[in-house]
């Protein structure tokens, strides 16, 4: 059986995704490359959905997945069981990132509408009137420059990363349970039986 190899492939894939999520979340703190005061940054950025959710909570199971195919049946089964537990944590982190990113996309950014006061001009929009589908409303945000595009791109990246991570962690839960229940020593057992 190849549950150990599958774990390693998933673990290797999760690392760059987690790093991209962390970088994307950090970039949300600097709209259009500007350093703003804390009160001028969109509130959903402070939920650390990319740093904690799709980042740290996914890196932990990724490390375990790389080591899940350890030597010996018992070591491998224990590694697989631990990878299942941590993959559930990774799935929760990816799902958390998806939820916060979705809210960030729907609610829109915090911006200055021209009178020097920062507010959320799109928060009460219905889905039909949402700013995402009507670019002409984007001109309402004067500062920071290009804040709407900045938020849409980064929250969209985080949304996609969160979905992919959640799917991969879910696959690893199934893979890890299979490896724990069935073991990954099938080839060795067949070799021992044929050698008799």
TrEMBL record:
Describe its membrane topology. Multi-pass membrane protein
Q: Which Pfam families match?
A: L6_membrane
> Which Gene Ontology cellular component terms are annotated?
membrane
Q: Does the keyword Transmembrane helix apply?
A: yes
Q: Which InterPro entries match?
A: L6_membrane
- What is the annotated localization of this protein? Membrane
Any idea which UniProt keywords this protein has? Membrane, Transmembrane, Transmembrane helix
User: Where are the membrane-spanning stretches?
Assistant: 12-32, 44-68, 80-106, 148-181
Question: Of which family is this protein a member?
Answer: Belongs to the L6 tetraspanin family.
Q: What is this protein called?
A: Transmembrane 4 L six family member 1
Q: What organism is the protein native to?
A: Ficedula albicollis (Collared flycatcher)
Its taxonomic placement starts with: Eukaryota, Metazoa, Chordata, Craniata, Vertebrata
